[in-house]
Amino acid sequence: MGQALVVAAHGSHLNPGSSEPAFAHADRIRQTSVFDEVRETFWKEEPSFREVLRTVDADEVYVVPLFISEGYFTEEVIPRELRLDGWDRSLWDSDGTSASHATLTASDVEATVHYCGPVGTHDAMSDVIVRRAESVTDDPDVGPGFGLAVVGHGTRRNENSAKAIEYHADRIREWDRFDEVQALFMDEPPEIDDVADHFDTEDVVVVPLFVADGYHTEEDIPEDMGLTDDASDGWETPATVDGRRIWYSGAVGTEPLLADVVLERALDAGATSDHSSTAVTAEGNE
Length: 286
Description:
By secondary structure, the protein is of the alpha/beta class. It has helices at 20-30, 49-52, 72-82, 125-137, 159-174, 215-225, 258-268; strands spanning 3-9, 37-42, 60-65, 84-85, 101-106, 112-116, 146-152, 180-185, 203-208, 239-241, 244-248.
């Protein structure tokens, strides 16, 4: 009986830090006592997607992918490995950034599974990006006089990869908080290599829309932007590049506020709470 939350992330055999955000956000959500059980599961680590539902006793399970975009992992790998009967991507009725949830059954467990869209396309992720900018500048009012670069990998193999980045850049731009907001990419134009060329503001906050810090966020992006010639030597924050002060935040997925987005995904799918407030990162929980 009861309800469980499953946080599904990629994980890595090569980068031990890849799974840290999943464990950290799951721990924060456990403290709310909204769910009877909270489980982490991974594609490249244990416990695996294939086994995780067998570890859950609850009869209502909410699966939230800790991924940025709708694509191969969220539309194919996770549903297949969970053995969700009747899954089809059309059940999300999404244009690439609007997935909500689908209610299904898993073929080998007695539970109703509410399969949610990825955290990266939830509207609340825009707030996490802004919080990341506040964190790196140590300024809760950061915005006026600053530019904001929302950075993604980008790939011609999955157009939704860029859609998620552009979606949040567009939303934050409409808030008129920052002087400029741009979506930039590693592998397609406009590219992060030329970050200074895309802004007129002297100060630019760069927030990578990645779940975990790893090779891309800790080596590729800092070196591509010119923060350092060798990422192993580190870099200054802010660092001056072509006349701009670059405030590089690192992966958005390590921001504690992301736990609230995971919880919002589950609540949107029908999870219930007896608590007057379900904010995970309220004072005393951060």
